[in-house]
From TrEMBL:
PPR repeats lie at residues 67-97, 98-132, 160-194, 222-256. Keywords: Repeat. NCBIfam families: PPR. It comes from Selaginella moellendorffii. This is Pentacotripeptide-repeat region of PRORP domain-containing protein. Pfam families: PPR (PF01535), PPR_2 (PF13041). GO terms for molecular function: RNA binding. The keyword Isomerase does not apply. It comes from the Eukaryota. One of its GO terms (biological process) is RNA modification. InterPro entries: PPR_At4g14850-like_plant (IPR046960), PPR_rpt (IPR002885), TPR-like_helical_dom_sf (IPR011990).
């Protein structure tokens, strides 16, 4: 891309990064006649997020200049992979920190299961913003530390819908539906995630009528909400109702198609096969479901044929 300017090339690198096309991102970077810090940080993020930690380290050390974003990318990468000594070493060498850096590391710790480290860093922060508080609440809630999440939630100076939804999801995941519903009802304004989380929670606990009640009360039904209702019925063996919702869906995604194939195989082999053939697009889940259907029925020749089509 000899004619590409810095802005367009950086946008291309970021786009390739989102789809894990690391080689293509690097080709764009290498072809740039001029590069700046923003471009370098985009390339560094591509290495880190695609899991090429060796490449990220080498690229970082080869950068002519670095800023707080560069350092944050590297320390977050080490934190996510559980390299405690490396993450601390880089963190201690950082020439400056800011609240964005701290938030990134907290989230990296939480995602790698190091909730105690995330909490320690949170309490050591000289200043916090709404992202800091929200990250800590959702991290505690998702890991099942509900009392800790509740304590942090009570101290938050400003709540966001993400914070509320984190509490709802945390209690729902543990099966504490009354607590989840309590936070749902207390929300100043529920969003689509809130409604869908409650419907899914009821479905997971076998309360399909309550799930339907929540679904019917939703101000808006998007494809996730419809898929949630399909799963609620199918998960509880209500295959006819699941099929009815599936047919009524104005738009279907891969998740809803795959759900119907997986659950249809429990009822009718031919119905599952018809659903598969009707799919506008398929992924590995779709193909695996079809393979499993025929394998369970002893159709080994068909299994081989399907495998060859994948």
């Amino acid at each position: 891309m000899p004619a590409a300017n810095v802005v367009s090339a950086t946008a291309m690198i970021t786009a390739y990064n989102q789809y894990a096309y690391l080689r293509e991102a690097r080709e764009i970077f290498d072809a740039m006649p001029t590069k700046n810090l923003v471009t370098g940080n985009a390339m560094l993020a591509a290495y880190a997020q695609c899991g090429d930690h060796k490449g990220a380290r080498e690229f970082f050390h080869g950068m002519p200049i670095r800023d707080v974003i560069s350092w944050t990318s590297l320390v977050a990468m080490y934190a996510e992979e559980g390299s405690e000594e490396e993450s601390k070493h880089v963190f201690d060498r950082m020439p400056q920190w800011n609240v964005v850096t701290m938030n990134a590391i907290i989230q990296a710790y939480a995602e790698s299961g190091r909730i105690a480290d995330a909490g320690k860093l949170f309490h050591e922060m000289p200043e916090r913003n709404v992202v800091s508080w929200t990250a800590m609440v959702t991290s505690y809630a998702q890991d099942g530390y509900l009392e800790d999440a509740k304590a942090i939630f009570a101290k938050i100076p400003q709540w966001s819908s993400i914070t509320w939804n984190g509490m709802i999801a945390g209690y729902a995941h543990k099966g504490y539906l009354q607590n989840a519903k309590g936070y749902f009802d207390e929300m100043p304004e529920q969003d689509q995630v809130s409604w869908t989380t409650m419907a899914a929670a009821y479905g997971d606990c076998g309360l399909v009528n309550s799930a339907k009640s929540v679904f019917d009360s939703m101000p808006l039904h998007n494809v996730v909400a419809w898929s949630t209702m399909v799963e609620a019925y199918a998960h509880n063996g209500c295959l006819d109702q699941a099929g009815s919702v599936f047919v009524r869906m104005p738009k279907r995604n891969l998740v809803s198609w795959n759900l119907m194939i997986v659950y249809a195989q429990k009822k009718h082999l031919e119905e599952a096969k018809s659903l598969f053939e009707a799919m506008p697009q398929r992924n590995v889940v779709s193909w695996t479901a079809l393979l499993d259907i025929h394998a369970q029925n002893g159709h080994l020749v068909l299994v081989k044929e399907i495998f060859d089509r994948m």
